[in-house]
Amino acid sequence: MKFDAKCEKERIVSFIRNYYKENNLGGAILGISGGKDSGVVAGLFVEALGSENVIGVTLPCHSVETDRNDAKLVSDYYNFPLYNFDLTGVFNEFKTELEKIGTFTEEEAKDSDINLKPRLRMSTLYYLAALFSKVNGKTYLVAGTSNKCELYVGYFTKGGDSVHDILPLADFTVDEVIALGEELHVPEPVLYKAPNDGLSNKTDEDKLGVTYKAIADYMENPNSVSEQDRKTIERLHKNNAHKFNIPTYRRE
Questions:
Q1: Which residue range forms the structural domain that includes residue 66?
Q2: For residue range 33-88, what is the model confidence (pLDDT) as tens digits?
Q3: Using one digit for the tens of pLDDT, what is the confidence trace for 218-251?
Q4: How far is 31 from 34, CA to CA, in rounded Å?
Q5: What are the counts of helices (DSSP H) followed by strands (DSSP E) for the chain?
Q6: Burial of 213 (C-beta count, 10 Å sphere; 0-12/13-18/19+)
Q7: What is the arrangement of strands in the sheet containing 82-84, beginning at the earlier edge strand?
Q8: Does 206 reside within a domain?
Q9: Is residue 205 a part of any domain in this protein?
Q10: Are 67 and 89 in contact (CB under 8 A)?
Q11: What is the pLDDT of residues 175-204, one digit of tens each?
Q12: Is the Cβ–Cβ distance between 67 and 93 less than 8 Å?
């Protein structure tokens, strides 16, 4: 069945509006990375709540400047405020404090460094959500931006970009997100750029070792992809299953 982007966009907008009305909520705050997912989520919330109730934040942390420029394309188009909160100094101070524990090689600290950045970003977004809720007299939620393909293979940081209050794109593949973005008129340089985390100097697909299209095809029919892609997807899905459930002991 052909994906009806117009219909789905309207349903998501209604979902957001209804949730906000039922829970007496006021606004949304989200990190604007300069990529398609945050661009589409921004467009959805502006349509649902109005640009005056959306706040965007760029959160550079040893990041590339072009990402911030692309984020501004989104905020300029949708006319919502965009604040820059540079976490580079916070990250550097963290690394200085780490030296009191021991000396670690760049390779040993690589994954920890990469995952620290989204965790700092998450803390910042929640701080600002609480702050603006107090200042503006209405409750702001932190909007998540993960899509279905990312979630299936666990391509997110536990305690980082996995933390949010509302998640509108969780049931849409990357191609479907692009179609929603076209319906929302997300600026083309943002919508069609190769997805990357802005942290590791690699595209998402380089890091995953498989394309988002292959992941989407696999979810539809596991036998529709190559054996190598199938094994990669299944390995990622299995190895990252721990990110979805916290084992909790219950007394008998």
A1: 5-196
A2: 999 999 999 999 999 999 999 999 999 999 888 899 999 999 999 999 999 999 99
A3: 999 999 999 999 999 999 999 999 999 889 999 9
A4: 9
A5: 11, 4
A6: middle
A7: 82-84, 54-58, 27-31, 140-142
A8: no
A9: no
A10: no
A11: 999 999 999 999 999 999 887 666 556 788
A12: no
Two structure tokens written together for 97: 């404090």
Instruction: Report the amino acid identity of residue 23.
Output: N
Q: Which residues contact 89 (CB under 8 A, 6 or more apart)?
A: none
What's the CATH code of the domain at 81? 3.40.50.620
Residue 55 is inside which H or E element, if any? Answer: strand 54-58
Using one digit for the tens of pLDDT, what is the confidence trace for 108-125?
A: 999 999 999 999 999 999
Token duo for residue 240: 């990252």
Number of domains the chain contains: 1
Residue 71 and residue 82 in contact, taking contact as beta carbons nearer than 8 Å: yes
What is the rounded average pLDDT for all residues in the chain?
A: 95
